[in-house]
Amino acid sequence: MSQDSFSPHAVALPQARRQSLVDSALEALSEHIASGMWPVGARIPTEGELGEILRVGRNTVREAIRVLSHAGILEVRQGDGTYVRSLEDPGTLMRTISRSSLREHFELRTMLEIETARLAALRRSTGDLQRIKAGLNARGEWAEGESVDAFLERDSAFHRAIAEASRNGALIQLYRYFLGTARDAARAAILEHGVTEPSLSLHEGLYHAIEASDPARAARAARAILRPLTKAFSLDRDPAAIGARRRKDPTMTRHPR
């Protein structure tokens, strides 16, 4: 099928599942690349067209394309489009991670956040610090009546700015993908399990540690941010038990639902 004749409604790609949007978009793209629908050297549909087919936003499609591009499956040519470079599927490990339990996810995220924060404290530039501060200010607290997705997007932007300050290209690419599944996990924790997002003060502590170029302090701050979530999912899943933990833990603030 040529790019010129492509119609968003002409190809029946699987629709992305809401519980794991980036993972589903990645899986759908990988399957169709492996099937030869878009052979090596072919230009794939635009982000907007793929988003319409999969019924996901452009940001979700962009994250999936970034993963495949970093793995050497796709090649993004600025001003020209995205082309297939290989038919191999690199997504198996990432899909396994995204399908893990919430406890496993937050334990893994804690390890990733700690090292990301430590490297950012060691390597950040003045420009990095300004971007992290801007992300912190934009994140703020969860406003009453605000959608969960809007708040989590701002939270992700703050953490992404920290990852970019690590100066580790592989880590940055991994983090960009992982943030997609992190948003899904955080959404499930908030809406399905009554767990609340860590407070702004904890995020301010992380910023100040990076500002001070103190890697040990930054690592502790990153761990503190994820501790309420890892604690919640290491307990009985019974709502009463989770509620009791929330009342005892001062680092967890209740937000409107």
Number of helices: 11
Average pLDDT, all residues: 80
Ends distance: 46 Å
Strand content: under 5%
Q: Can you tell me the number of structural domains?
A: 2
Q: Quick one: CATH class of the largest domain?
A: Mainly Alpha
- Using the CA coordinates, give the radius of gyration: 19 Å
Order of helices and strands: HHHEEHHHHHHHH
- The general outline is globular
Segments where pLDDT lies below 50 for 5+ residues? 1-10, 15-19, 236-242, 248-257
The largest β sheet comes out as:
2 strands, antiparallel
CATH-derived architecture of the largest domain: Up-down Bundle
Task: Tell me the name of the CATH homologous superfamily of the largest domain.
Answer: GntR ligand-binding domain-like
Q: Structural class of the helix and strand makeup?
A: mainly alpha
Kindly state the number of beta strands.
2
Within the CATH hierarchy, at the fold level, what is the topology of the largest domain? Four Helix Bundle (Hemerythrin (Met), subunit A)
Give helix % range.
55-70%
Order of strands across the main sheet: 1-2
InterPro entries: GntR_C, TF_FadR/GntR_C, Tscrpt_reg_HTH_GntR, WH-like_DNA-bd_sf, WH_DNA-bd_sf
Protein name: FadR family transcriptional regulator
Organism: Gluconacetobacter sacchari
Keywords: DNA-binding, Transcription, Transcription regulation
